[in-house]
């Protein structure tokens, strides 16, 4: 092939594709095309996915296992905590008294109690959860661990690199705000070494105002999507449009497609949503974020990351029990319960995998124990819980087990790479896919194994 018809990445240009590739597809015919896809899937070992979309609900800061889904009522003082367990709709499954909505929907949930990894630093742990990989060492301090273009890409970025689309629907949306604190930007939120063209779209909402909205898709008065599309078409006929491989051109194309399509813009406009449904989600940032997540999934976005709060919202080193009881667990319970019901009523739950977890758990021992001090729990990555629902997940079950103190797994543990493999498998992405970093070095997409126990009741 003439090298002038190739980009820097070795991909054929639009013109070359139109001249050669499209005619080749016409010559192949539909049966041949389908046969080719089947042969490719067989050769790569790709497993067809059950889910069309994945919603990752991130509890930034780390949810304590003892105070949510893995309570230890028989543990000694100083470990079991102040909350009481309650029975759920699933026989034998108990959870925190401040999660009554999820308890009532337990037959839809699979609770994993043996998630585990070795990283107790927020930034590195978030990177593990959102990519399935350890972060690249760059230094000893937190300032050296901020987001970098050497990071491994997040799930949405990988999907975008493998299934680039031009229909105006992004492959990934993150909301309500970027995980940033001062000069620190948490790694794992973008495309890393794949480059900015594959970054998920970051929705910008004020986490302190439940009714805030992102106006980035709002067109000026007098300019509608149809008119914008005509302008773009006229521009393409007047000037030479850069070929695929030009990062700016790719991002411009994606932005214009997003504006011209209008589906995502409509999904972000909740003004016409049934007020009773909005009430069920709750008039707070948790509820608004998950309502938007449902609307984005309904619009065709395959991966939505909804952070429940800003960085370290769930980092309860002090005032653990009042914060969970009054500020965190009730709105989370309400919003996630509404999300599950809403997806189910619309026929979307079976094709949407919902995953909820923090980047790690909290210490078994409560500190400090002196009278008058405010009790809290510290970082604990050795064992922590995760909740799964939808996308073919068999609900009403507990997977994995921690010891009597909730400190370490005593059954098979599951790692962030296993979480990544589960998400990729749900979307039909081959975990053995090879990516290349900025130096051209080959990297395997995922080293984990899909958590198949989520889809059956066989013992782990």
Automatic annotation (TrEMBL):
Q: Tell me where on the tree of life, at the top rank, the source sits.
A: Bacteria
Question: Pfam families in the record, alphabetically?
Answer: DUF1501
Q: Which InterPro entries match?
A: Alkaline_phosphatase_core_sf, DUF1501, TAT_signal
UniProt-recorded name of the protein: DUF1501 domain-containing protein
